[in-house]
Description:
The complex is a heterodimer of chains A (521) and B (322). Chain A is an alpha+beta fold and 521 residues long. Helices cover 50% and strands 11% of the residues of chain A. Chain A has helices at 14-37, 39-45, 47-55, 59-65, 69-83, 86-89, 94-108, 204-207, 216-231, 235-244, 272-290, 306-323, 329-343, 348-354, 376-379, 383-388, 409-414, 419-429, 437-449, 453-466, 471-483, 487-494, 501-517; strands at 118-122, 128-131, 136-140, 148-154, 157-162, 166-172, 179-181, 186-190, 193-194, 197-199, 247-250, 261-264. In chain A, the strands form 3 sheets. Chain A has a 5-stranded antiparallel β-sheet with strand order 1-4-5-6-7. Chain A has a 4-stranded mixed β-sheet with strand order 9-10-11-12. In chain A, helix 5 (69-83) runs antiparallel to helix 7 (94-108). By secondary structure, chain B is of the alpha+beta class. Chain B contains 10 helices and 15 strands. Chains A and B meet through helix 5, helix 7, helix 21 and helix 22 of A and helix 4, strand 6, helix 5 and strand 14 of B.
Amino acid sequence: MSSPDAPAETPSHPTVVRYERLLAFRLIDSARRLCLEARELCEETGLRNNWLAVEHSTAEFLFRIVKQPILDSWVQTAEALLSVDAHKRYPHAHPSRLLKDFSRLLLSWAADMPDGFQGEVQLLGRRAFPLLSGSQLLLLNRRGANEKLRWRVDNQILTIRLDGVGTIAEVDLSNPQERRALSSQCALKSAPAFAGLTLDVWTPEFTGRSNDAPARSDFDFFRVTLEHATELLNAEQKRQVSSVCRCVTLAPADTGWVAGLIKVSAPAEITPESLVELSHRDLIRRLLKITPIRFESAPLSTVGDFRETFIGIYARRAMSRSFGKQLSDFDDALWKTFKPYVLGLKYGERLLRELGEDTSPPPSTQTSNESPTFTPAAAAQGAEARDTVPPPIGLRKTRAASDSPVDWHAPDSLLHLPTTELERIYERVIVNWRVSESSAYCAAVISYLLENFEDSRKYLLKCLEFDSDVEEYWHLLAFSLRHLGQLDGFDQIIFGRTQQASDTTDLAGEITTAQQGTGAA
Amino acid sequence: MNYSHPWKGLLKELVDIRLNEALLTQYVAALAGVRRALDDWIPARHFDRFTELMSAHGLAVEVDCVFKRLDWQEAASGKELAPTTRAVGARYPDGLDDDPGTEVHVIVSSRSDWAVETLKSGWYPIFVNRRMVRKPQVDHKWLGLAFGYPECCVEFFIGHNDWPRFNTLADAARASSKLRWQANCLLKNSPWTPMFHMPCSFDCPATVEYSERTLAAVEDFDPAYAEQIRASLKQYFLMISEGQSYVLTDASGGAERVAYQKAVFVGSHAQYDRISGPLDRGNELSVEDGVVFIWKDGELIETFETDCHRGIVEAPMILRFE
Lengths: 521, 322
């Protein structure tokens, strides 16, 4: 096994600070968009009023709350819902709950609210409610659906009432250890913390479940394991972990990344090495979130998702350096392939430098395999085209050697245009189809959509003359042949080719010859 | 094989050959001319019997390709683009073998020209040489029309068949002024359905007519079967997504809260069933804010929080078809 390269300098994590500053803007952007685009929903769910309390607060307050993983979770979810217009299409499903959940965050910031401030939180079946930025938790002994927690701050005392029960808890915000659970319906718990990491196995935004928390014995085991693991970290490792991560929880692997939150599916996964590795995973994910880098035509698609593989290898490299361990041959080989590729990308050098990786030029002359992008709209030059076609979408050329599915954005995005508009674009692009690859492809796509399969075949064969190693051309040709009743041709393309580019050139010749033989050229 | 009904005649032969009780009404619909064509997957080892049976009943068969078991280790990227895809494709007849999981994808119609026409758009997403092979979206539209589905429903489906952004069933429910059992597609993965397409609304007149004509034809084959279908469709359902739905047996209540005896998963694939266990522990449920609340004798015992941001839009609803 070979040793990983030593970094040029020890990173100081300005990334985390930058990420959190940007998170503040993302929070503002999401909240404002929701208030603008889902006004009624924001009124019904209380987000509008709750947001006002935050919007009028200080920058210092904002930059403090963005350190909380629960806020990152809320913002990520809000952005995801906004991106699919769920707040418009299905407002009373998940979006409604998310907006109501902002009241949970506000309750956890009660210490920053002015005297006389009050709020309410609908239970929605939850039993755990973070207080004091997550350092304490209010745990209810039973569930409720529509009942609400109603809270108020008076003279630095946070008083919490539960519908149908009355006052259940009080917390002295000037001295949080002074707290009282006033009802058998609840308990107030301090979340244990080790090396700056809070252990929280109750908050549903962390655990991905709103039902029962782990048994007491399991929690104790988790606590002891975490305490022991953090004790074994040296000063630098502790600094690394605590300057990136805030909290540790038990959650299934598929519940998604939350900045600052270490998720494990079992307490036994917590070791000194895993803490350091997971903190580096968090670090690189934050950096990738704020760096506009695109992993196009990434190498080695056979190892699955490049981005996730890259994250994993970086984190293992960083952990290996930290503990003086050897990196595996497999990871080392992959890194040697990934590094020049990343260096060749826009922002790639910056990314690696911020991660503390050596950015000196690689020994080989290998350059990045950036694919050209082309769009039907780009082919349709002219003022009218901008009015008639959707905004250009960057298309990908899928090579035979890649396992990626074909990119059908071109025909799929034009599908909803009226026939008259398709014909109009077609008239513009056929002028250049013999000399312009993108014009030929655009003509092929439109012909296909208009069910002129003889023409789509003709244009696609031309596309293959320009570049015979494009799966989009081959597959659309295959489907054109299928619609022409030439199922043998379809089978030959779909089933009969290997992933050798040379194969395709021969087949294109055969199909062209066959076409000429039928007089269909 | 365990039968859920005492099948007889053509229907029994189809069940025995296909090892599957779904889609039977669609064969009847094709014979009766209610639908132009259908597609199906026939176990390779029974394929000869199948073609003989079709020929005996005057149905034309066109072959697409062979479906073979998918080894997930072999499949590389693209799985997320076709969540229901479960197979590797091979050319027919080269890909035939004795593996019980090997099937032939076919088009069936009462007319050979319709079968040929439907085959052109009849490609189904499968892995070939490690690559997911899909067809352009327009082919889904052409296929729906070739099958003979109502044009309004085909257009609706094309506009909404995008699981990360749309919940087609929720959209159909919202487009409905009534929930008519004839347009209830939630049992399409079972034998108890007269239809197989996603309707544009649950009171779409064309779909209601399609179902009634199909049921009239089924009645000629097996009156008890037709009656069982009607009874099955007139029930309460908890719909979360196309993949995850449940029929609530012996249920009563309204759209807000329903008491039930048992909840049975009727979604598209078992992998989407996430709450059969909790539902079994309760006897009442309600839905609010994307949360399914499960109650037992008046006490809230569990909740299930649905999401709209993890690749499938979940929009839970209680639907009562009448």
